[in-house]
Amino acid sequence: MGKRGRPRLPDEERKKRKAKRYREWAQRHKEQVNLYIKRYNERLRLSVLKVYGRPNPKCSCCGESELKFLVIDHIQGKGNIHRRSVVGKGGGYQFYRWIKNNNYPSGFQVLCHNCNMAKALYGICPHEEKRKKEAN
Ligand SMILES: [Zn+2]
Ligand SMILES: [Zn+2]
């Protein structure tokens, strides 16, 4: 006892070893880890949607309220450029994390996938186009 004990490793080294052990564990439990990450990301996504779509998130264009269809849209457009500038090439979830970490900045809204895609592809959602025509 005592004398034979290994000398305490510096924190840095201990952290490195811990991270390595975790990586090895994660390698052996890939499915479990992926599922966990997926659930965590989904919770994060829903919590962000709920902040922008209080109290019940729905598409601000067509009113779709199925949460699985909803996304956060950059109101001014250019969402992809902004997204890339804040999270690099990483996928959508990093974007949701960025929003949360930045205290839910303004300039975003809730849209459904359809309206969001249409806006990105055509610059305007056909719903919106129709509304404009009807208004004239
Ligand atoms: Zn919609
Ligand atoms: Zn629409």
Helix content: 55-70%
Number of domains: 1
Structure annotation, total helices: 6
Please describe the biggest sheet, giving its number of strands, its sense, and whether it closes into a barrel.
Answer: 2 strands, antiparallel
Strand order within the widest beta sheet: 1-2
Q: Could you say which overall geometry the principal axes of the C-alpha atoms support?
A: elongated
Q: Which regions have little confidence, pLDDT < 50, spanning 5+ residues? A: none
Walk me through the structure.
With about 140 residues, this protein is mostly helical. It has helices at about 10-30, 30-50, 80-85, 90-100, 115-120, 125-135; strands at about 70-75, 110. It has one domain (about 10-135). A two-stranded antiparallel sheet has the order 1-2. Helix 2 packs across helix 4. The relative contact order is 0.12. The site of one zinc ion has 5 residues, from loops.
Features:
136 residues; mainly alpha; 59% helix; binds zinc ion
Chart the SSEs and their pairings.
Elements: H1 11-28, H2 30-52, E1 70-74, H3 79-87, H4 92-101, E2 108-112, H5 113-122, H6 126-135
Antiparallel strand pairs: 1-2
The structure holds zinc ion (ZN) (2 copies).
